[in-house]
Structure formats: structure tokens, C-alpha cells
Amino acid sequence: MTKPDDQRMLNDLRAGRSEACGEVIRGHYQAVYRFLVHMTRDVHEAEDLTQETFTAAWQRIGAFEGQATLATWLHRIAYTKFIDAQRAARRNARLQERLTSLQTSSDTSSDDPSDSVAADDESQRLYQALHGLEGQDRALLVLHYLQGLSYREMSSVLDEPTGTLKWRTSAALDRLRSLLTDEVSHAR
Amino acid sequence: MHAESGRSGPNSDRSLESLEARLRALPGPPVPGDLETRLLSTIPAEMPMWEHGSHRRRWVIWLGLTGALAAACWLIVLSWPRSDGSKIEVVKHDGGSPGNSDPPPVREVRQDFGPSLGTFTWPLKEDSPMLASTAIPPDLLD
Prior knowledge:
- The structure holds 2 protein chains of 2 kinds.
- By secondary structure, chain A is an all-alpha fold.
- Chain A has 10 helices and no strands.
- Chain A has 2 domains: 1-111, RNA polymerase sigma factor, region 2, helix turn helix motif (Rna Polymerase Sigma Factor, Chain: A); 118-188, Orthogonal Bundle (Arc Repressor Mutant, subunit A), CATH 1.10.10.
- Chain A is 78% helix and 0% strand.
- The longest helix of chain A is centred in the last third of the chain and has 26 residues, at 162-187.
- Chain A is globular, with a radius of gyration of 18 Å.
- The mean pLDDT of chain A is 83.
- Chain B has helices spanning 16-24, 35-40, 55-83, 85-92, 105-111.
- The longest helix of chain B is centred in the middle third of the chain and has 29 residues, at 55-83.
- Mean pLDDT of chain B is 69; it is low at 1-12.
- At the A-B interface, helix 2, helix 3, helix 6, helix 7 and helix 8 of A face helix 1 and helix 2 of B.
């Protein structure tokens, strides 16, 4: 089930070679960071969570069984970190205010990842619609279409049955289309 | 905002397949250049001990230990009569072995009633001449 590269990295990790950690980082940090950018919609928070993800990964690496791929395993940790951060943000009223102010000024904020991503207007619009979705819908679409995870891998990340994920991804895609259609009607 | 950008207009192809394709082709956000260096600095000097016992193995170990414990308990239960044989034999041979030198407790209790009860024999002796089916004498009601 694991890719050959993953297997080799795992063998190196099991042998206690810390250089293998560097290899894991180089092989996966960009995907983890991009996933977290889409989830948090804040590049700074995504950077922090990426660091937390890998720190947690080194702590838990001993328990990694190799049944899933390293990418799937890291996405799961990253998603857990994102959920934890969301919960902490909800508990913290001051942070909540800060987030609200960030959202209201998101049009001019340089932290908005869609500003730096979209080379063309179409991508920019798609990004904004994607970031306008609920967190769970966004997670499904980002994991499947942007990160390229299969439904089975998503099942490991989100801890939900494959059939449910297929259905929910389809519904999320419908909602994204509705958002884009609404935007078109407003633009006209 | 979009009308002012000078483009030809939003994409009119709104089918789900097209949307899927556009999502897949969406460029990823740029990754900060120093992020890799920062992440590399988080690698611990000593790697944690690899847990050779995976969850499945742990299950097997737990299952084995539980089974061994259950088997040990069962063996203790089975060997218990051998350590206190006399008591168990009394129960086993109660009424079945007349030659037993130690009478069972129940029999002792019976004997406490004394010889007044007599020995039970079958069939019962008919001491009374009156039988259950004896007819009532005709002068009895007068």
C-alpha cells in the first residue's frame, strides 16, 4: 500500500537515521503547507501549523505502522492540528475578534493566499469561491482535487467512510458551483 | 470588480466536470523559501524509539495474556477438588455408596430425630382395619 519511496524512508526512520526525517520534510512539506493554507486561509497560521504538524510527526513516528502512505499520515496530523487550532480560536475571544477583523479586511490583506496564487482572474475567482465554502466542504475539495488524495486516503485523513466522502464531496462541488454561479449573476 | 478587470467574462462552462478539471489545474499557493530550513530545524537529535509492537501486535499480546489468565483460572478451578477431596466425595457418594464410613451431614441430621420415627418400610403395614373404601354403617346417621 505504501509507495516504494515511503517504504525506503520508513526503513531508514526505523533504523534511527535522522537524515530520513529531512527526506520526509523535503518530500512532503509543500503539500502539507498548501493544504493548511487552503484550510486556514492565512499563510502565517499555515506556516505555524506546518511546523506543528512535523513536530507532532516526529513525536509520533514510532507509532506509524506504514499501512497508509506518509503523505496521508501527514495530512491527517495536519488536519488534526487545524481542527485543534479552530477549537482554540473559538475558545479564545480575543483571537476571535482578531480573526473577524482579518476576515473583514481580507480584500486588502496580503495574508490572503489567493492574492499571490492567482495569476489569472479565473483562478482568483475559483480560489475565492473555494475559500468561501464551509471548512468541511473546503477540506473535501482541497484534499481530493488540489492535493490529489483518493477517497480511500481521504477516509484515513478525515476518519469517515469512503462512500460518505464521495457523496459529501459531490455535494461540496455543487455548492462551489452555486457560489460561482451566484458570483457570475452578481457580476452581470 | 471582475467586470473592470478587462477580461472577456466569467467562464460560462459551469458543468461539474469542467469545475473538477479547473480545480485540479488550480496552481498551488507559493511556499515560503525559509520554511524548509525551519522545518529541518525541528528534527530531534534523537529519534524516538520505534514501537515494534504495532496496534495489531499489541492486540495479539493482550489477547494472549487474557487467554493465558483465563486458562490459569480454569486450571485452578479444575484442580480445586483434588486439594480438598473428602468434602467433595461426601457430596458425590451421598446415597450411592452404603459402605462409606463417614455418613453425609444430611443423614446425620435425620438421625437426630431419634428412633421414634421408626424405619421407613414399603409397603406400609395396615394396622387399622378401616380402609378408605369402607362403607358407612347404615345406623351411623340415626
